[in-house]
Amino acid sequence: MKRITLLIVLLIATSIYTLAQQSVSASEAAEFNPDSLLVHRKMVKSEYPTPSYTFVGTHTQDNTNQLWLHGYQGTYLTSGSEPNLDIVAYYIRTQNNFVFRSDIAAQNFYTFSDAKLKINVKSLGNSLLRLQQLNGVSYNLSYNALKDVNRITNKAAKLSKENNLTAAEIQLEEKRKIECKQERIGFVAQDLQKVFPELVKTDSSGFLYVDNIGLIPVIVEALKEQQSQIEQQQRQIDEQKEQIESLMKLLGEARQVMLTKK
Fold it and tell me: Is the pLDDT of residue 221 over 90?
């Protein structure tokens, strides 16, 4: 009975080791270190674009039940049958940006805003006037521009020619065509940059990104300015109303005097 139990344990351990080897050998440039199984970490040595290390697993010798996804030069999240083709999101170390190429749905979204993290805090001025210089627009994404973004993003991918697309590439192109048909509302980054340059960022490829959340404080201050103008105008109206009522009263008294003299 003990021999049978030992045999089963050995078979399970062999199966686990075999599956681990197969998962890594899918990449031709990858070299898997079996010893890393002891620390629940899979190290993969990559030869492209420069020799470096990536890993998926725990970061320390102790099992912390925390999953780490590490790429020395960056991290890519992909989907579909060809990982190099359909990139959902990516982080490039030198750019310090996490770029998502898909819609994002979340229960909530918070940004750092604690006073302890800020210096040179100043009140915003002329917010209403600056907002009046902006133009909200409706638009569609450019199909050709998206193809250019895809080529720039996938520098490591060997993309097929237009007349010789793979099934996965055809599926992705159809997906982009559908995305381009969707009407959207927003700002043109180049126009926003003229009024609020601090809310526009340029990536290493020359594409502009806007900080729409950064417009919220501007809108708040613009509403306060507008409300102040409304209240000032209301005070002027009230004063003019009192003046008119006083004049009407004087006019009525003058008429009464004239009627009495007659």
Answer: yes
